[in-house]
Design a protein that fits this description.
The complex is a heterodimer of chains A (346) and B (299). Helix content of chain A is 46%, strand content 18%. With 346 residues, chain A is an alpha/beta fold. In chain A, strands 1, 2, 3, 4, 5, 6, 7, 8 and 9 form a nine-stranded mixed sheet that branches. Chain B is mostly helical and 299 residues long. Classes of the chains: A alpha/beta (346), B mainly alpha (299).
């Protein structure tokens, strides 16, 4: 009798501890106003609704994931990544295959999720200008950005090749649909680099992060820069005199991936399903001007017509832009970036 | 019989030598934990670095990481920039630090310790904080440009950051204590009676300084300069933040190679070359000064 009671007690205790054991996921993202927006719109509400405990970190991109996977000490369950670097990481075998029977992408835009990375937001790489220098009617094209006679002043440009060659090609007068075909050889890449070389004496800063290009505009350190549209809107909210245009901008998306051997892979999969739902995605534009990847997010009534029109992914804005080609980056990024780094040290 | 004979006939000196050898062996045993530590934290990682630098993108033994450094011109340029920044920083540190250390060494001790604190406080402040502080001070709308313009020193904002100038300002500020401390130590150890003797023998103050004081302080100066120079070679944060992406040093290239290539070798090879160059400089320098002085100034 006593023995049975003891066993039952023990079983109950075991059961309850198992039940009480928290489900946790560790998420790494890029920090700054971007991660703050993700945290408020996606991570915190999803954590509250699912009871999953979310630990947030900032990280340095897929090179951190490579280090963790290659040393077998994976601590991150979910990482936020650019679509291009996620594609490269997937090709290297650094990511877990996503289970789309768990993650519901039925209402996603096609092309905004891959086997290894599910889209989180749509953003644009734009040219932004200091309204104190050029007024509200700043440059209207990449040709203007590269034209220092029409728009005298200093520039900032990215210190990596991603999103750096397409503007130069468009400034050379190449049409959107031909940009990647033109860049499909070392000669083409060199042609774009020569255009950047021309501008280089006027490039004061080669920026390395979104926080940096936002700060450069806020401080009035340069008159024009390339960068990610949402960062400029947030800088403008903080009082920066900055505007940007979607004309000839580059449309891209960020996505969430699970590193190979993530300690809480199953919880991560469930959590990704949660934050991909329209009721979370529709809150993201409140904090940063990035569009949802889930079409249904436009139908919840949270995103007003006015806000929708300001997002990179609105049909009208999207039509003015060049969609980033993941195939081109998969084929050329390493070679092109080596050539780009050569140009930087000249 | 033979055995005892030899042991008896063993010369006194030889048995002493044998004791000495045993003693050395025991002392060596005592130092083995330290040697093990050096092996674990220094020899193995550096050896690993060498090994990895010879692994190519396909995981096989390859010289491609070194061949790339020859084929691509940017590597030579980056090494030149690295040495240029390090030389200039060291030179400026000497020009500013030596007179300052001399001034401090002449102060009465209470004032000298106060001066020493003003040197040490920035030394203890986070490097990152100091670097960003310089960015705030030096940028176009920064304090220095604003004040200079409102005082009429110059009319247009001048470019003193996001270039070599800004990098050097930041690095000199961060490196100064590494020069001042050993120089100050060396100067404090100089007996002032030497200078009095020189004057007594008819030397002018300038002559007394250059022929007596300066040579006596030189070991400290050399030690400090060498320390500054070698620390500069591996610098990352300050040139990355104040150089505007245009002053690219080896450490920054190591980071971009890790991001760019799918293997560690490309970055390791850079580390190996930088290490080899640093060792070569230390070796050359050791022919002129006693490197052991690096830790404590020229006493």
């Amino acid at each position: 009798m006593n023995r049975v009671l003891g066993l039952t007690l023990a079983a109950t205790l075991l059961g309850s501890t198992a039940y009480a054991q928290e489900q946790t996921v560790t998420i790494a993202s890029w920090g700054g106003s971007y991660q703050e927006a993700q945290s408020k719109a996606l991570f915190e509400p999803a954590a509250a609704n699912t009871g999953i405990v979310v630990k947030q970190e900032t990280y340095g991109g897929m090179s951190d994931v490579r280090l963790q996977v290659s040393t077998g000490a994976v601590s991150l369950d979910i990482v936020a990544s650019g679509s291009g670097s996620a594609a490269r990481a997937a090709a290297e075998g650094l990511l877990e295959k996503l289970d789309y029977s768990v993650i519901d992408v039925s209402t996603f835009y096609p092309g905004l999720y891959t086997d290894y990375c599910v889209g989180g937001d749509v953003f644009s790489t734009v040219y932004a200008w200091n309204t104190a220098t050029y007024g509200d009617d700043g440059p209207q094209s990449w040709a203007d950005f590269f034209d220092v006679e029409k728009f005298p002043g200093t520039r900032a440009y990215r210190n990596k090749v991603a999103g750096a060659l397409e503007p130069a090609m468009m400034a050379l007068g190449v049409a959107h649909e031909d940009v990647y075909a033109e860049l499909d050889s070392e000669e083409g890449i060199e042609r774009a680099l020569d255009k950047i070389r021309e501008l280089k004496p006027n490039i004061d800063v080669f920026w390395s992060s979104g926080a940096q290009h936002a700060q450069l505009m806020k401080d009035g350190e340069v008159d024009m820069t390339t960068g990610w549209n949402g960062r400029f809107d947030n800088a403008a909210k903080d009082g920066a005199q900055v505007k940007y245009s979607y004309d000839q901008a580059m449309l891209d998306y960020d996505c969430f991936a699970i590193p190979k051997g993530a300690p809480n892979k199953d919880v991560a999969m469930a959590f990704l399903n949660e934050i991909s739902k329209p009721e979370y995605q529709d809150d993201l534009p409140k904090y940063i001007t990035y569009g949802p990847t889930n079409k249904a997010a436009y139908e919840t009534g949270v995103i007003t017509a006015e806000v929708a029109a300001s997002l990179p992914s609105s049909p009208e804005n999207a039509a003015r832009q060049l969609p980033i080609s993941l195939e081109w980056y998969a084929k050329w990024e390493t070679i092109a970036d080596e050539m780009y780094q050569e140009m930087l040290t000249e | 019989m033979m055995m005892t004979d030899t042991s008896i006939s063993l010369p006194h000196g030889a048995s002493l030598r044998r004791d000495g050898a045993l003693e050395r062996l025991r002392l060596f045993g005592l130092s083995s934990p330290a040697l093990l530590l050096v092996l674990v934290v220094l020899v193995i990682p550096v050896g690993w670095l060498f090994y990895v630098s010879f692994i190519g993108a396909n995981g096989q033994f390859s010289l491609e990481n070194y061949e790339r450094m020859i084929a691509r011109k940017s590597y030579t340029r980056i090494f030149i920039t690295t040495f240029q920044v390090s030389f200039l920083t060291t030179g400026l540190c000497i020009l500013i630090g030596y007179p300052l250390a001399y001034f401090m060494s002449q102060l009465p001790s209470r004032w000298a310790s106060l001066a020493l604190i003003t040197v040490l406080v920035p030394f203890w402040t986070s490097l990152l904080v100091r670097t960003y502080a310089w960015l705030v001070l030096l940028q176009k709308q920064g304090l220095i440009n604003q004040w200079a313009i409102s005082l009429g020193v110059w009319d247009e904002p001048i470019k003193i950051v996001h270039n070599m100038t800004g990098t050097l300002i930041g690095m000199v500020h961060i490196m100064l204590p590494f020069l001042i401390l050993p120089v100050y130590n060396a100067m404090k150890a100089i007996d002032h009676d030497y200078l009095k003797a020189a004057s007594n023998l008819g030397a002018s103050p300038r002559r007394a300084f250059w022929t007596v004081f300066f040579p006596l302080s030189a070991p400290g100066l050399l030690a400090g300069s060498l320390m500054v120079f070698i620390l500069c070679l591996g610098f990352f944060v300050t040139p990355a933040v104040l150089g505007g992406g245009k002053v690219i040093m080896v450490s920054m290239k190591i980071v971009s190679n890790i991001e760019l290539f799918v293997n560690w070798g490309a970055a390791s090879a850079l580390g190996v070359v930088l290490l080899a160059l640093t060792v070569a400089i230390l070796w050359v320098a050791s022919r002129f000064i006693n490197v052991a002085n690096l830790s404590g100034g020229g006493r």
